Amino acid sequence: MNRFSSSIWRPLQIILHLSVQNEAPAGARFRVVDPALEGRTRNMSCCSIHERKAGPIHMPTSRAAKLEVALHWYAIKNDDDSRWRHNLALYAYLAPAKPEIYYFGKCDRTTVRGRAAYSAKTGAWDCINERSQTHRLIVAEVEVEQRLTRQLLADIESLLIYEIKPCCNVQNTRSRGQHCRPGMKVQCLGAWPLTRTTFRDEGQP
User: What pTM, to 2 d.p., does this model score?
Assistant: First the structure.
């Protein structure tokens, strides 16, 4: 067996990767991170050692295990409603009479009123106007037991779009991309138009 230099005996962080066949530990391999090697690692087996560049170590995480979100939806009926000025919120455009959602959106760098401009969402507005000349607007205030971030808001929006598939949304209707938060439960309250009110994030791709 090779004799290791004295530098190896500094405090090490060792991650054990086992390649066990027939439960035999003889094939065990170690990846040893030595602070003196400035990000390099040593791969060790029982008989050999060599250096290589360290790759990122991905640890399993659960960003939203048991995270519960309540969305309190309000109908916007006049221009004086204070919710037009919300700048971290969800909104939805509905059919004029029947319980149908045309489009889901979020505002995180502008206000609800800013997102209502035709120039902000030309494709969505063209789709909405093709279906009816009038529509209803609802805005959600988010209740959650942690800080509401832009990323969390995007994850909630993505879940609702993926599950409901509004006719005028394009993104997130088939794939969630990076906007998944497995374990999250979203409940819609208030002026919510649909029969289904609870949505759970099962980690869809």
Answer: 0.65
